[in-house]
Input
Amino acid sequence: MRITNSMMTNNMLENLINNRENLDKLNQQLSSGTKFSKPSDNPIGVTTSMGFHTQMNNYEQYQRDVNNSKSWLESTESSLSDANNVLQRTNELAIYASNDTLNPEDRKIMAEEVKELRDELISIANSKLGDEYLFSGQATGTKPIEVNNNYHTNNDLTLVNSTNISSVKRSSSTTLNPGSYTVSIEDSGGITDTIKISNEDGEVVAEKDTDSPLTADTNYEIELDNGEKITVRTGTTIPTNTDQAEFEVPSFVNYNGDHNKILRKISDDDNMQVNINAAEVFKDNIETINKMYEDLKNGEGGEKISSYISDFEEGMTTNTSARAEVGAKINRLDLVNNRIDDNLLNVKKLNSKNEDIDLAKLVTDLKMSENVYRASLSSAARVIQPSLVDFVK
Amino acid sequence: MFDGINIGLSALQTQKKSIETTGHNIANANNEDYSRQRAIQTAKEPNLLAGSNFMQGTGVKVADIQRIRDEFINQQVREESQESGYWNQIQQGMERIEYIFNEPSDSGLQSAFDKFWNSLQDLNTYPNDTATRAAVKNQGMVLSKAFRTINEQMMDYKRSLNNDFGKKVSEINSIADRISRYNKQITTALASNKTPNDLLDKREALFNDLNELATVKGKTDKVGNLNITIDGKKLVSKFDTNKLKVEESDDHPYADKLILDINGNNIEVKPETGEIRGLMEVRDSEIPTYLDNLDNIAESFAKEFNEKHSNGFDLNGETGNKFFELNSNYSRASRAIQVHASIKAEGGINKIAAGNYSENPDIAEVNIVDTSNINKDQYYKVEVSKDDDKYYYQVFEKNGGDSSFGSPITTGDINIEDAADNPIDFSSRGFEFTINGSGETIINLNTNQGNGNNAASLSKTINQDEVLNGTSVTNNYRALISTIGVNAQRADQMKESQGDLVRQLENIKQSVSGVSLDEEMANMIKYQQAYNAAAKLITKNDEMLDSLMAMIR
Output
């Protein structure tokens, strides 16, 4: 082939440009630390890397989410544990107060402590994490346990849908369990009439057979199993079979939250309930402690107080199993966290393999490219110069 | 006797002419368009020697000054440079498109999707937290801005390509014009038997430039005109040219058509290759394809997200809110997508629907039909199983305070394909529910602020739900990036290899037509020596004449 001067210059230039491009590519990789900076450098590599980055981002988010759920559960756990201490102490006091040797003064002093314990349990039930109530279901902005203001004063129970029944009075606030009740008259037509009090399930909780037919505007005392008395006053006309009235026995505290589960996403396909509501774990205990407090305050005897011991034991069992459940969830979250850590590490490794440069190899390549570039420069300098012009004088 | 001097003279003239040609070659050694020339020396007509049968030589003359070239190679260079021009444009376009999409990076669309997902996960954890809600709104705006930025930059690029298109068209016109003027000069010279070598070189250089721009075919007629056709239609015919012009497309913005005006008749021209074709391809095919793809992603994502969002309830317990909207001023969804005005408004973050009546709306989603029948303390458990084509469901109920659900209150089945359009009626309890999948979920109709069920479901629209082409939104986007990458890679390779091919052919062309200084110097010495010898011949003849004259004296 006939080689001309401009051919040699052009070829030389072309090679120099190629070598420089190569050098630039390697330099870019070295300074960015990654094998590719745009999709065309390696389309599969780039999209794989995008996938890995999304995965890493997601795992890091799940780590945060799991930690948030964990701190929610840990707060729940510590509240439950505090509640258990309260229950244990009340249980001790109940056992102690069952002893009939205590005088009424001692019981009143004890009542004060029980009252404090009751209030303490209410404030535990109303614990918050940040701005959120822990024990009110999804109604996290609503105080779960609120004391019913009517409770103390109202032994004269409010009647609804009353037919010829004037009033129903209870002797103390611990007489009937909270709920709605119906009082009804059974007029036999003979000498003995019956007054019945039944709960919302239709079970008769108390009844009284009279010695003579019922008369209007008369108080009738009905004794309950525990010896307490309820006074029913008949209406202005002579009672008949159709006479009845509904009434509500207020509870000491109301649960204002809901029964929804707070579910937290802990992985793409899994979620976990993190909450327990106060109706499940606190309300009954508060009611019991309150009853005990009222009984102690009213100077009730040991037998009455001792009936609460089994309630407290049951309360503690519920509490313990709730704590076990919470503990198990915390453990599971730890496992989830470990798994996320492992997955994150794996993805990071894969991603690094996919996109990170091999420094040793790259530096070697770069050095080699540099040498080639130098060589091409010096050969260019040598080859371009001479021609016959230099020798013809 | 004087013959010798005449021979010497012819030799002097011829060698001088040859040296001048050599000088012309040397002068043009670095002129890319130049074909080296050679003075063709030939013996002059011999004389019949009087009274003999011999012919005697009368010296030398320059018969022709020839351009040394290989028309076949030149034609190949032209053809391949059409292809090379095409791939250059495609490569430039793809590189720009890659920069516009800006992946992989921390500021591309993928990263915006990731951050939006993060904010939704946080919303699942803190459904009523103001800062978290504000973050969801802001990340939603960042995401729609990311779509919009890509769209706007693509349209800007398309517009600038359309401008370039106009410029290239005027370039073609200008070249065609100049070729037609060279045609005139060359045919005139040829008619008077002159060899217009340098004019031919210049015309050829213009023709080569034209080949890079578009597919053209050239043919030289008998009298030396180079007639050129583009897409089979006459562009240059002898001394006349037909003008190319651009015409706005009615169908698409910034997609001007190429029109050839032949005596007032407008004919659309579609070059098969060349720069102008490459440019049209990027402008009319690559950019719209990727934008269509992006539009599909934006539209189906916004639709799916809004469906789920409107099904959930906001902080005020209201349902039916939309999170995204498509601005009706724009036809492309990637430009039109934006966070809904009601969410962007003052206090709008309270309208973000983090809550859902159903614990898992991906199994059953609730629609309230009669608020007067709703009992907020009631809980319903829906169990759904499925076989090939049917969902089987059971519904249980309990009051909030109860510890467990009793026996089912309703059981039934429904064809999977009908499930979406046929909600299960529970209007006696104030609602109906649509089955979306199998599993177990609990429905409750209170709307408390701690409910983050919908946020968990919303976050699935990004990476999990099969929204488009049977896969997730982000998978679709990654497939788009992969397509762009593969196309850009191919364009890189084609540009490279086509460039190499053209360079090799150019080398061969140079090898034939290029000026070698060594060779020219050697020729110069050769002609110089011949010149010296011829001068000596004249001197010797002069001496011989002197001797003859001396005899007379």
